[in-house]
What does this fold into?
Amino acid sequence: MRTMVVGLDGASLRLIQPWVQQGKLPGFSRLMEEGAWGKLESVPNQRSAAAWTSFMTGKNPGKHGIFEFYDVVPNTYSVRFIHGGARDGATLWGLVSAAGRTVGVINVPMTYPAEKVDGFLVAGLDAPGVDSRAFTFPEDLYREVVKAVGGYTIEPGLTGCIVAGDVDMAVRRLHEELDQKIATTRYLMQRSPWDLLVTVFRSTDAAHHCFWKYLDEGHPEYNSADADRYGDVILSAYRKVDVFLQEILDEMDEGTWLLVMSDHGCGPKHPASNQLNQWLEIKGHLHSLEKSRGQRAHLAPLLGRLYRSVIGGTPRSVKESLWRWFPRLRDEVQTRLCFAGIDWSRTRAFSDTLFPIIRLNVRGREPKGIVEPGHAYRQLVEELKREIEQIRDAKSGEPIVDRVFQREEIYWGPHVEKAPDLLVRWREDISIAGIRLEYQGKGTRDVRATLIPGEDHRVISGDHTLYGVLLAWGKVVRKGWNLDRARLIDLAPTILYAMSIPVPEDMDGVELLDLFQEEFVEAHPRLKRRSSEAAPSSGVETLYSEEEEEKMRERLRGLGYIE
It folds into this structure.
């Protein structure tokens, strides 16, 4: 079977199902009526870099080694940015290409540098720019696409528009970029024959992040006036994709099947993750230098306003000059807000204040670690897990933690040590205002005063959730079948199975045989191979140059993935 995969970054049934029932998405409706569909479980940390890499390898992050867009630099409290070249293991399209089939890959995150395949590849958002080395394979493909389509933008920069308060500009950029990616996909899928085609539309995720508060009446920043104006922006993005899907379904032959999937789900953003260092300080696990505690409290609101002005209200040419002349300025600001005031000689645990993770300050691993490895480490892990599970909501007083995971509980493989020590999973069944922070003798403290715009749920109002979506359609697919317990890591082995290509035994995912008609399964035995050897290197180093790293810092800040 030929296979086409359409990735919709962050897409979720919580949006799709109601709109289908209201008759607003006829393409999705047809997929659900005539095919198989259900929730798709993401990777544990729900982060895009880890999720898309698990999709393409069929492996958990502990095996492929990518947990975020960056790694923690050993023996430091700083990070370095990475791209797809840091991946451990072969890709789905690399295996299909090695089996003698032709592939096409468009805009999948963590695919830079472009892999040399039998076919073509356009790298995703980890490429520093369209002029970067190995942005496409073949190398001249980018110029061909621009000539055919009229332009190509890696990311539309919606967050900067929202931070600046120019919501209308964000709407325009959203639709311009979606039109561009759809046109690029249409051109490349018709350009030459293919056996596997994978394309990703990331603008759905950007729409969730930037426009959730206009859609969700339960969001604390929702108001009816803004909702009347912008409440349909996310739906409009889905409808544009829906038209594309209808066209694909009408054109698809019986020898091809279609998968529509997402890397994670979507929901409202809340400030709890940003408050973890404050919570750790109250509990006595983190200590601030006395002078720095007051300085951070006074500096944070000022720096937030400055950041809003520079990022949101400054022309792009000026921002590029600022980053060029002061390349580390923003990182120094965030470092001082998060870490510079920490007394490491007394701190046992800390967070990056961006995501719901906690790292222990371990002797011999961190440069100023004080937690002894072994028994003391395990004791502190259990103590933290018990305390975190008791965290309550700042407004309702309800418990807000679903589960707390030690990294070895959710990851396995040679790269587990890269993961944070603890991962917190917030509840998704309630509205969360934030962590109830009780300061002895001082009442509570408003976390919003310390949030810069990229972290502030009043500005960037949508976030990731655990379950994305999977829809399958084609002659070999069951009709109207509701999938149960499908995982992101199951897609690579399922696609290989459908294409009669042996599935490597070191993949963590399994073939989703329930997707297919019984006669297809009976006629197609499962084929296995010993391992998924890595594809040949493209010859590009796995670390960015200094200039490329600065470009990635700016893009990831614009997406809210770093601060």
In short: The chain has two domains: 2-268+464-475+533-558, 273-460. Confidence is low (pLDDT under 50) at residues 534-540. The first strand starts at residue 2 and ends at 8. DSSP finds 20 helices and 20 strands in the chain.
